[in-house]
Sequence to fold (850 residues):
Amino acid sequence: MANLVEPHGGKGLVCALLHGGALEAEQERAAGMKQIEVSARAKGDLIMMGIGGFSPLTGFMGKADWKGICENFQMADGTFWPVPITLDVTKAEADSFKTGEEIALVRNGVVLATMKVDEKFEMSDADKKWECEKVFRGEGEESQGDTFWKIAEEDHPGVIMVMAQKEVNIAGPVKVLSEGTYPTEYKGVYLTPAETRAMFEERNWSNVAALQLRNPMHRSHEYLCKIAVEVCDGVLIHSLIGNLKPGDIPADTRVQAIDILIENYFVKDNVINAGYPLDMRYAGPREGLLHATFRQNYGVNNMLIGRDHAGVGDFYGLFEAQEIFDKIPQTGDTGKDLQCRPMKIDWTFYCHKCDGMASLRTCNHTKDDRVILSGTKLRKALSEGAEIVDHFGRIEVLDHLKLYYGSLTEKVEVKMQAAASGESM
Amino acid sequence: MANLVEPHGGKGLVCALLHGGALEAEQERAAGMKQIEVSARAKGDLIMMGIGGFSPLTGFMGKADWKGICENFQMADGTFWPVPITLDVTKAEADSFKTGEEIALVRNGVVLATMKVDEKFEMSDADKKWECEKVFRGEGEESQGDTFWKIAEEDHPGVIMVMAQKEVNIAGPVKVLSEGTYPTEYKGVYLTPAETRAMFEERNWSNVAALQLRNPMHRSHEYLCKIAVEVCDGVLIHSLIGNLKPGDIPADTRVQAIDILIENYFVKDNVINAGYPLDMRYAGPREGLLHATFRQNYGVNNMLIGRDHAGVGDFYGLFEAQEIFDKIPQTGDTGKDLQCRPMKIDWTFYCHKCDGMASLRTCNHTKDDRVILSGTKLRKALSEGAEIVDHFGRIEVLDHLKLYYGSLTEKVEVKMQAAASGESM
Fold:
């Protein structure tokens, strides 16, 4: 009998999504509420609150939680949480409704949720800077001393996003009315925590790992994944299907490439190919913790963390996202502490002398024996139709990606431009 | 700061080995005691009791422990233990001393230990058969119904050993006076639990795996080991250096071959090559549990269990030694339950399509894509100096083994005959 890890926070799956009659009633009520347009990021957060991916959160965070999380990874009640989940509005918007009032959160004309505003708190530039210091500054070269702010405001997408937030954060519980187009656009891939848990239980998995992906799955990812397949009951290959940076490979292409990889190089029963609706926050080590936190809600107890997990430029140490798991506070209360454990893997590559995949922990050979290709170089080679070095990728997957790059100039340009404008959904 | 798993039984390392003045005094006292010659197996057991490898055992087991272990893997006080650790003597020997008396346990003229006889209990043929049924009968073909006894008494070395035991088991605490020739013959390889724990702590390991070996380490073992290196702090490569069957490769050759493998294909800091002084009990799944139990004492919390671990003929299901870990009783008391967890790995091999090592959990290709060689076929090829199939082994290791086989007809024949007579130490 499967015995999956409990959802984070000790309160089961906390799902704010309404269905059926309750949904219809709330939609009607929402029509009479003040409407506030929210960001793409907030949309992802709302859907996660809807489906239990952000358990035990019931809505956007107030100042005490925001502060505790920035300072020490803990909400006001001591529950672990790695990254503030806040909702920003303009001063004018904030003044247009009262504390205690219910408002409707909308995006592109769709009412995503209603929210009872419990609290408003101003976010000065100094506050935002403080949040950025706590959340985004790491131990890498670009995070050192004055360098951080010189580079971050122009080059760190997470910092840019927070600094661009509006002047007031509003907090309170939400009722979620929409999952957007995820259920239809990513049918069979967009799975809720309740759904993955049911699948794990059906397969009798209790020791489950997750592989985080936002880029195509190459042999290094395959190796991480297969290590986990060897020692766990199964692996959730979990791709970000929310918003990315312009130029990144779209989710449908990535998800198809994973299907091709599984078809040709995996035992199907041991992996599940799925996606989650969040945007990248680019928070480096803290994002690694967030990945583990919401994976726990999906039923995962081992989070694969490789080299430079969720890395941004040189802001973070290459293994900082692994080390941070040993530094977060432990209350001893399983309902409050993060239960999903990191499965830390070193820098991986194909090694000719090892005659297979290896890592810096297992291979004692030299650089010349190893096949190493950066994602950037790979994208260049793929888009130019150049040959990829032997043992780097799987031919079936590379062919699929080449197909995408080949089609790019013809029909995808329009889509890319849409993406560049800030949203790919 | 390293935080190693506690020794089994919740009482720290229980070591019966005497040193210095206490040793000398006991040696003198032993000279006045009744001497009982013990088996090679008992010698291994005594050394393990001496160095804490069998913590929390203080001596050979009485009837209540023997019965509880056979029936339900538990000693009389509820502490987990997988295999009876008993000492057999003849009826005449048993009659030559009283309960409460101290006796000396000797082998080949060396006093190994003294023992205070707390209990004598007769072991009829029916008792021995019952022990064999409980300990050695498994779920494999040769364990089914009447087949078991038809085959086991001639072909199961564990059953043969128990059935050949003398008529009376004697129980009581021991004081161990000798580690035999292990410390000198296997200097640097024969490590005590206190020594491995100190080494783990020095390396800051807390999550440690062990690889059990009694045969040369080929690529499948290397693969198991490297999976563990990837996900744990380090791996103890732990070879049986006690007695084997005639025809098996001697421990020194195996240990050298492991050194060669580590030198050429491992990151040295991540593995430790060591040996333990026990004989094989050939108890299949229960032996797998014993491997995990004494490894916990060595500071190991993950026991690698592959396909047909400690298997004998077709007496056991290929993964029975993995499954049994889920069937043993749990009291909920960490002092009593086995804390060392199995790291279960499926059948492994090199696969041409996977382009590396894989297992039935990760590879979906066909038999023809895989390089599979049985240990028996390998030994035959090595002893005939034949070429080993590509990707099966490491050339440096195979060369070393060929050297051994080449020298066999010249100088090793005498040694092998000695081994065939029942003891290789």
User: Anything to note?
Assistant: The first helix of chain B runs from residue 20 to 31. Chain B has a mean pLDDT of 93. Chain B touches chain A through 29 residues (CB under 8 Å). Residues 20-123+165-176 of chain B form a domain with the Sulfate adenylyltransferase fold (CATH 3.10.400.10).
